Structures are given as structure tokens and as C-alpha cells.
Please model this.
Amino acid sequence: MNKYMNDRTKHFPEPSVRYPFYVEQCGLQSCSPSYHITRTLETSNVYVAEYIISGKGTLVLNGLEYHPEAGDFYLLQPGTPHEYYTDPEDPWVKIYVNCYGALCENLVRAYGLSNTVVVQGCDVFHTLEELYQYACEERPTSEVMAHCAGKFTELLALVSSMRLQGKRSTDSEEVNLLCDYMDQNTHRMISIAELCHLIYRSPDYTIKLFKREIGSTPYDYQLMQKMNICKRLLCTTGSSISSIAQTLGYDDPQHFSKLFRKKCGMSPREYRNQFRTSTADHEPWISRPNTAYGKMENKSSKKSE
Model:
């Protein structure tokens, strides 16, 4: 019997005052075989940080599939529609925190995790467990959130450190070198020839190695990073689509818009307008609609997480 079968979850009500960091819910969960969470652009309004204790499953983000399993950590950010579901033959057991507030965004940016999704071999169980323990303390909410904010900071610092040490998502030094190089050059599109030269390998070997370790081709990896940066710029700045395209290495804004639509299901302008509409009626870090938990799809019924 799995020693984590007893789920533990702590929920916090919507606050009546403004907090720079606020936990919506956190806990430890043994997923049912039918566990399936879907968040749309409107309902994806919290930071989701999860560590997989055991089991395996699938995460779909920006048209790319990831397969988090035991020992992996993943981070989902507001404004990024996604879905994730467990392998029914080997369900996830995980520990997690859903949170929001200006501090979250600032910390993610400060630790260079804006483009991070899955980090393999990233053992942050004890940090998340301590955050959960702080959340359960019988103290004033302000004190609880202050303690949890400290642990969340420690969590991101730990993830960032492991990522920089080459444990982003693979133990392959070559693949980590390629990822670092592409992450540092999002202002242009890097050719396969350039990547091959970096690790002194053939194009065929480089593509197969990267896809085996990361789950996508180098081209798709670069495109995913660029789309994530574009989304944040669309939501947080008034920069024109043409200017954003140039920032990401695209001289033709129409071509860039077509790529964005293909990956994200809508044009950059539509994405910006939808984000503005969804946040126009409330402060996103004070008022959270019930749908923020996402949608849990079971074979027999549908209910919130």
C-alpha cells in the first residue's frame, strides 16, 4: 500500500485584503486513475508548483507534451492554458501549491524561471512539505502567508539552482548546453547547424538526442520559449505585436502571428484582448473565481479539483 494514500489538503478562502503572496490551496494528493485537470486562458490564473512523488502522467502546454514522473517538478503560470492527467496504470502521488500575488511573478522572473515548465530529477519534496506545514499552522493569516512566502522563495531558488546545475530536464550535458544556448538567444532563431557545431555532432544525432531527452525537437523547443515570452509581453506591456515579433527575432509580424495562432489557437491580438477582458472586472490577485481550480474530468462525473 502506498504510504501517501491519505490525502492532505489545505484550502484558503478568498482574502478580503491585498496580499503580495497568497496560497489558494496546497497539499499532498494521491490521484485517481481518471484524474484530469484542464485550465483555459480564463481559469489559468494561479501559479501551480507540483512535485511528483511517484507515478507518471502527461502535461500538455502550448501544443507540447511533457511526461512528468517520480522525481520531477513542474511549474505552470497564469495566462497559460494547459491540461495534465495521470497515467491510469501508474497514477501520480504528488505534493503541490497553488498560489498567486505580485511576489510570485517577481520571484519567477528573478530566478530565471519564466520559461521553465518541467525540471526532471528536481527533489523539492521537503520544501513543499514544509510550506504545507506552515499553511496548516493555527496563526493569523498574515503570518501564515509570510511564512509560506519564505518557503515559496526557497522552493524557486532550489529549482533555479538545480536547473543551472544542468538538471533542467535531463542529465545529458550536451542537451543542457543546447537548452542554455537557446534560452540565452531568444532574440533570434538558432539553426540546427549552429547547434550541431556547439556540441560537435551531426544534425541527425543532435535532433534525435534532443527529442529523446526533452520530448520535442530543438525547433519546437525554441518556438515554445518564444511563444511563452510573447504571451507575457502581450499581457504585461503595451508593446506592439510587430515590436514583440522583432524582439523575438521575426522581421515579418504576419508570419509570427501565424505561428502564434498555430501554437496557441488564436492570434496575438486576440490573446491580448481576451486577457484584458478576463481581468478587467477584478484585481487578479485579490478575487479568484471558483473556476481557478480548473476542471477535473472523471469518467463518471466532473467536479473541481
Q: What stands out?
A: The longest helix spans residues 141-167.
